[in-house]
Amino acid sequence: MGRPPSANPKSKAVPIRLDAATEKILQDYCDKHNTNRAEAIREAIHRLSEDETRYFWSPEWRALLGDNEKNLMNISEEFQGTIQLLLQLIQQMKIKTGSEANESE
């Protein structure tokens, strides 16, 4: 009678206190992934034991970071060029309208 014994019994209880922000993060995760709080916490704890180089520095992750770094560098250079152009245009407008002379008075 009753339920058969679990192959992996959960016999250790770990009561914790959460601040409101942490509790919301946990609840949002559970809602998004359709899981309960206990399972989400167990999953997070298992991630702590994973080899960081495997988890964060997989070849796919490193390639993605490398591609994004190149894109950011290109965008940064383009943005700097655009800012310089805008500053030059502002200076030209001040000279043409005589606003520089008015500012010094």
Describe this structure in words.
This protein is mostly helical and about 100 residues long. It has one domain. Helix content is about 75%, strand content about 0%. It is built from 5 helices and no strands. The chain has helices at about 20-35, 35-50, 50-55, 60-95, 100-105.
What's the topology here?
Blueprint lengths: L19 H14 L3 H13 L2 H5 L2 H39 L1 H6 L1
Summarize, please.
With 105 residues, the chain is an all-alpha fold. It contains five helices and no strands. It starts with 19 loop residues before the first helix and ends with a helix.
Low-pLDDT stretches are: none
- Series of secondary-structure elements, N-terminal to C-terminal: HHHHH
Q: Can you tell me the number of structural domains?
A: 1
User: Could you tell me the number of beta strands?
Assistant: 0
Distance between the termini: 96 Å
Q: What value does the average pLDDT take?
A: 83
Computed over alpha carbons, the radius of gyration is 28 Å
Shape field = elongated
- Going by helix content, strand content and strand pairing, the class is mainly alpha
Q: Bin the helical content.
A: over 70%
Beta-strand content bin: under 5%
Largest sheet: none
Subunit organisation of the chains: single chain
Number of helices: 5
